[in-house]
Design goal:
The chain has 631 residues and is α+β, with helices and mostly antiparallel strands. It contains 18 helices and 20 strands. The structure holds adenosine-5'-diphosphate.
Length: 631
């Protein structure tokens, strides 16, 4: 029987709990505060009634208790209306459904995230990356075949394996171990339904003779710029029967599957309530690291490999997701997503990704689950950065604009413009300039920080604010060393270049960067105040070095000369919507180092196989297939 361990909603010692302010102020002037979420150990202060009325949550049949408890502590009330809710934790929806979400609402999914959340799509996307970038970078998922399409390829691989290979067959879009089987005979293969057939990792790392896998929580707050966080704890789920490699035991699900929903049916299953203890069939991830540490294993190396897998897997679907976000969402503010990565360690402790869940189970039926998932959800909701809507956002057609100056409005003074504000012409030119360089080095890309435009300041300030709310999550992209991943993007994106450069420059002295942004926000630069012309970017702002002789001898390090750059970009021909007919003179040079190595000085020293070029040099104003979409 499953005992549901509820978090305390209110306790007799309530008054003794630490009271936390309901709003977390921004680090920066003229930026809005965000709502605070707590665990059961804290109380959240009550907002004045006018603001409290805005705290509405849309319940769904799949909203987990741990989410309900967390939002209740922050005084959210449930609503059934469509347009007054601020948050919802629900099902994934079809892309078109995202069109109805208002600018101030947040849903826990991105359109298109099934591109990694379905097993068949995950495999397709990762194998595409493997084909482009090679096995050295993309060799962390078992080879798979999607049936019926790949039946011939599977047959060949099957024969190459001499019939001794074990395979695991999975429905392409199910969960909790449903429909999964380990097989070794061709005639065991079901023929009538779509299927994912995957190489079975037959030599898993065992603890006390049992197989296990890891549930890693990954949270994406934004896809453009991409910001990925990984939770520093997680769950280790053990099979409840000792592992054997015998073909005869392949039908034993308690031996070969590690899902809790499968193993809880085994009378031998032992639960564990202690997040420190290495006992029973579920452990905290931190307990596993502790255990492996005592065996002399370097767990930092494993963790770094897991981070690498996570970043690459998220990047594998980012192009698809960003296209849908731009097509269907009024505001990028409206989406965030928690992913559950299932990772298995083989006998050499190499991590393999088995699947990615877009609705990871948040059920908490032991104190161990509550401890891990409760804190994690608190951190997710804090990172999400819920901002109280302004009155006029809630009532766009309201005749009384007088009410717009109520306390609600003033609370959000200088609030974020959730609908991405139109970029100014010089901002568009700046983006085009940094995206159109095919050959550029670290020095060139670092110049992106020289003159920060209003949108740059907004994005950087938002990212710095977000980072202060990360709790037990760790941001893995961008980070000081993440520029090396930029080459895996199908389309280079300006904001990723900006944030990666910012990280490289400021990660050791973050307070210096924050002071700089504070100054700019104080002047209202992020709100478009450009009275101070130094924030007005023009091609002349780039006074860096330009390579002049790239074609003459590519093997010698090109001589760099300080020059002003001189190519004309005709903005209308680039279909940079919003620029009107204005022709923008920009200085763009096209012969700088390859964008695929951008941001990483080591990468530019050691050329890596270039992805199929996504940008061509723009040497004229003609139809250059342009980065406008990727800006
Ligand atoms: P589900 O979404 O149904 O949980 P998974 O792909 O996570 O499907 O597989 C369920 C379980 O089967 C995993 O937790 C793991 O224990 C086992 N498993 C899945 N794929 C493999 C594999 N390629 N090799 C070994 N074991 C696997």
């Amino acid at each position: 029987m499953t005992v549901i361990v509820e978090e305390p909603m209110s306790t007799e010692v309530e008054d003794e709990r630490l009271e936390r302010p309901a709003l977390v102020p921004s680090l920066f002037p003229l930026m809005p505060p965000t709502l605070y979420f707590s665990t059961a150990n804290e109380r959240v202060e009550l907002l004045p009634v006018e603001q409290r009325k805005l705290l509405k949550w849309r319940m769904s049949s799949v909203t987990p208790n741990v989410v309900k408890h967390t939002i209740t502590r922050s005084h959210f009330k449930v609503t059934k209306k469509n347009d007054d809710w601020l948050g919802c934790w629900g099902h994934h929806m079809k892309s078109l459904g995202f069109k109805t979400i208002r600018e101030y609402q947040k849903l826990n999914h991105f359109p298109g995230s099934f591109q990694i959340g379905r097993k068949d799509r995950l495999w397709r996307n990762l194998s595409k990356m493997q084909a482009r970038f090679g096995k050295r970078e993309f060799n962390f998922f078992p080879r798979s075949f999607v049936l019926p399409q790949d039946i011939k390829l599977l047959r060949k691989a099957w024969e190459d394996g001499g019939g001794r290979q074990k395979w695991i067959i999975k429905p392409p879009a199910s969960a909790r171990g449903i429909g999964i089987q380990v097989i070794h005979k061709w005639n065991q293969m079901p023929r009538k339904r779509p299927l994912l057939v995957q190489k079975y990792i037959h030599k898993p790392y065992l603890i006390s003779g049992n197989k296990f896998d890891l549930r890693i929580y990954v949270y994406v707050t934004s896809y453009d710029p991409l910001r990925i966080y990984i939770y520093n704890d997680g769950l280790v789920r053990f099979a409840s029967c000792k592992y054997s490699s015998s073909m005869k035991s392949l039908g034993n699900k308690f031996m070969h599957l590690t899902n809790y929903s499968v193993n809880k049916k085994n009378s031998e299953y032992q639960s564990n309530s202690d997040d420190k203890a290495c006992q029973g069939h579920k452990w905290a991830l931190k307990a596993l690291w502790q255990y492996l540490g005592t065996k002399g294993v370097n767990t930092t190396v494993i963790w770094e490999k897991i981070k690498d897998i996570v970043i690459k897997t998220i990047i594998a679907s980012e192009s698809y997701i960003n296209t849908l976000v731009k097509m269907h969402l009024r505001s990028p503010y409206s989406c965030h997503e928690l992913f559950g990565f299932d990772i298995m360690l083989d006998e050499k402790l190499k991590p393999w990704v088995l699947e990615v869940n877009i609705s990871p189970s948040l059920h908490s039926n032991t104190a161990l689950d509550v401890a891990i998932k409760g804190q994690m959800i608190r951190d997710v909701l804090n990172l999400a950065g819920f901002v109280l809507p302004q009155r006029d956002e809630l009532q766009p057609t309201a005749s009384s604009s007088a009410s717009a100056s109520s306390s609600t409005s003033s609370l959000c003074a200088g609030g974020r413009e959730r609908c991405k504000p139109e970029l100014s012409t010089d901002e568009r030119v700046k983006r085009a300039f940094y995206l159109s360089q095919r050959f550029a080095d670290q020095e060139f890309f670092s110049s992106v920080l020289d003159v920060l435009t209003p949108d740059d300041v907004r994005v950087l300030a938002e990212s710095e604010d977000e980072l202060t709310r990360q709790g037990e999550f760790q941001r893995v992209f961008p980070c000081a060393t993440s520029a090396r991943y930029l080459r895996f993007f199908e389309h280079p994106r300006y904001l990723n270049i900006l944030l990666n450069q910012w990280e490289q420059k400021h990660w050791q002295h973050r307070s210096k960067g924050i002071d700089l942004l504070r100054n700019l926000c104080q002047k209202g630069v992020h709100l478009g105040n450009l009275s101070d012309t130094v924030h007005h970017w023009s091609s002349k702002s780039y006074t860096g070095h330009v390579r002049t002789d790239l074609n003459s001898n590519p093997s010698t390090k090109p001589e760099l000369t300080r020059s002003s750059v001189q190519v004309t970009l005709s903005v209308p021909s680039l279909s940079l919507g919003g620029c009107g007919d204005e022709e923008v003179q920009s200085s763009v040079t096209c012969s700088l180092p390859d964008i695929s190595t951008l941001g990483s000085s080591s990468a530019s020293a050691t050329p890596t196989p270039s992805p199929s070029p996504t940008l061509t040099p723009c040497s004229s104003s003609s139809s250059c297939h342009h980065p406008a979409d990727y800006m």
